[in-house]
Amino acid sequence: MKQPKSEASAAAPDPSGAASAASTAASASTSFDARLAALEAVAAELESGALPLERAIERYQHGIALLKQCQQELDSYKRKVEELSAEAEAGLRRSDAGPARQE
């Protein structure tokens, strides 16, 4: 299975490291779903066993980077949900306690 040029060029390592900063900035604007889909594509490529060793290592490194980004974003979303749940619960407690005080 061939990859679109844009994904293949983003996965290729840059010996100077200059593209990695640009790649990081571009991936920050990429949605979680797009990163997850890219990770699944990398896994499928690796599982196919059709890649030469050097290319497989490159794709594996790219997959690890995607995995870390996804995990960090999931952790962030989890914290946000926990905060929102705590705020909602506190609001419910205040509204439950509110009418009892007014009597």
Output the structural class.
mainly alpha
Number of helices, where a helix is a run of at least 4 consecutive DSSP H or I residues: 4
Number-wise, the strands total: 0
| Largest sheet data | none
Q: Bin the strand percentage.
A: under 5%
Gap between N and C termini: 71 Å
Low-confidence spans: pLDDT under 50, at least 5 residues? 1-22
Average of per-residue pLDDT values: 78
Q: Give the SSE string.
A: HHHH
| Rg from Cα | 22 Å
Number of domains: 1
Envelope shape: rod-shaped
Which percent range fits the helix content? over 70%
Write the layout of secondary structure elements.
Layout: H1 5-11, H2 18-29, H3 32-48, H4 53-102
Helix pairs in contact: 3-4
Describe this structure in words.
- With 103 residues, the chain is mainly α.
- It has one domain (5-102).
- The chain has helices spanning 5-11, 18-29, 32-48, 53-102.
- It is rod-shaped and about 70 Å long.
- 6% of the residues are buried.
What is the structure about, briefly put?
The protein has 103 residues and is mainly α.
Task: Write out key terms for the chains shown.
103 residues, mainly alpha, 83% helix, disordered N terminus
